[in-house]
Design a protein that fits this description.
By secondary structure, this protein is mainly α. It has 22 helices and two strands. The protein has one domain (2-414). Helix 9 packs antiparallel against helix 10 and helix 16 (286-297) crosses helix 18 (324-340). It is globular, with a radius of gyration of 21 Å. It starts with a helix and ends in a 9-residue tail after the last helix.
Length: 423
């Protein structure tokens, strides 16, 4: 358990933290008004130059706005203690398999918003190293338990409360990890997951029809004995319920890495099985989705990757779901994979480089900085991070600017930035 947890804790906690809608937000503005991209680094394209080469920086996109709205709605209803309304919205979104334009489940976002105040407080206490058995933040968990007791038989409420306990478990573990002594907090970590499992137990049969409950049971795997034997069954159930959700397949691949519950061979087998099972929705695209976060975290996964099949899978995804969100996502992911896999054989590297260059040169017409940031933190389900705040958005924009500067250096040189006219 200890070895398994170490590799992923920071990414998981980062994604949960960024899901909090109480984090500062980037304001809407024209791309030429982003001063962070006007710095001294000559290897990074400025926001103005991104405009000039036809890749304007966008800080507000339809996907981001949808996610913010749902996160805010969940948070506000929880603050108002209007749990009946919140549960009804979660249940309706879950039953309808409602998703944002890029395929993030609305029920997960509402649930993430509902627990965001507590999750953020736990994260801050953990980061400060002050989380303890008598910390007042744990009063929030007890309050959540009271809500669950008042609403027995309510699956949406149970999912939110169970996820809150898992958030607490990760906060405990991260505090020990940051101090270099994670074993000191394994007991409260395990207790948190045991409590989450107890809350979900009455709804085990419902997870066969509810994507939210099935996804929450997948999140439980990190703290459960015997997870190696359950990971494939749970994720296959989840993907069958909601094949249109890429995040579930991304999380599946992550959990099949050797540092979690699988192996590179198991990862490749699952990617092929998912491609066959979801062909009606994605063509061969699931092969790329299952590999996506696994490649970002562990360059060793390249050893099992069928590069030609991966390229075909990405192209299938983009044919079925065209749009700048997906183009930015795969351009960003490929840039990171190529940077991490410098030692991969040329025969494997070349197709990935060609795909990256084609996306940036021919298909990318906007720069979505927040999407580039998300490739750094990975995907945490339920409730992946969508609101990175100003610093995260600037970091993502810098990554994008650096990548475009490399791929489009000739275009950038042909379009020198002219001094702006005096007002």
């Amino acid at each position: 358990m200890f070895k398994t947890l170490t590799a992923i804790t920071d990414k998981t906690r980062a994604a949960l933290r960024l899901a909090s809608p109480s984090a500062p937000r980037a304001s809407a503005h024209q791309s030429r008004n982003v001063p962070a991209l006007q710095g001294d680094d000559p290897g990074v394209l400025s926001a103005e130059l991104l405009d000039r080469i036809g890749r304007p920086l966008r800080t507000d996109t339809p996907e981001l706005e949808e996610c913010r709205t749902l996160l805010d709605r969940g948070r506000d209803l929880a603050r108002q203690e209007n749990w009946d309304r919140l549960s009804a919205l979660i249940g309706a979104a879950d039953a309808a398999r409602a998703c944002t334009a890029a395929g993030t489940p609305e029920a997960e976002l509402l649930a993430a918003g509902a627990r965001s105040d507590l999750s953020r407080a736990l994260e801050e206490a953990s980061s400060a190293g002050v989380l303890s058995r008598n910390n007042r933040m744990l009063d929030g968990l007890r309050a959540m338990d009271e809500i669950a007791d008042e609403m027995p038989g309510d699956p949406g409420c149970a999912a939110v409360v169970a996820l809150s306990h898992m958030d607490a478990g990760w906060a405990w573990y991260k505090q020990g990890w940051r101090r270099g002594k994670p074993e000191q907090h394994l007991a409260p970590f395990r207790e948190a997951f045991v409590r989450a499992e107890e809350i979900l137990a009455p709804f085990d049969s419902d997870s066969a029809t509810s994507p939210l409950l099935a996804s929450t049971r997948c999140a439980l795997l990190a703290g459960q004995p015997g997870a190696d034997a359950q990971v494939v069954t749970r994720y296959e159930t989840l993907v069958t319920l909601a094949p249109q959700v890429p995040g579930h397949m991304r999380a599946f691949g992550l959990h099949l890495l050797p540092c979690w519950f699988g192996s590179y061979a198991a990862l490749d087998l699952a990617a092929r099985r998912m491609a066959a099972a979801t062909g009606e929705t994605w063509g061969s695209g699931a092969y790329a989705w299952v590999y996506f976060d696994a490649l970002l975290q562990d360059a060793g996964a390249l050893l099992a990757l069928d590069t030609g099949y991966f390229v075909e899978a990405v192209e299938d995804i983009l044919r079925r779901h065209p749009g700048q969100h997906m183009v930015n996502l795969f351009a960003a992911g490929l840039c990171q994979v190529l940077a991490a896999g410098r030692d991969m054989p040329r025969s494997q590297r070349r197709p990935l480089e060609k795909l990256r260059n084609r996306l940036i040169r021919s298909e990318m017409t906007e720069t979505h900085g927040w999407v580039w940031t998300l490739t750094d933190i990975g995907y945490a389900t339920p409730g992946s991070g969508h609101d990175t705040g100003p610093s995260g958005a600037e970091c993502g924009a810098r990554q994008a600017g650096a990548a475009l500067s490399s791929v489009m250096s000739r275009e950038a040189r042909r379009r020198p930035v002219q001094p702006s006219p005096a007002p």
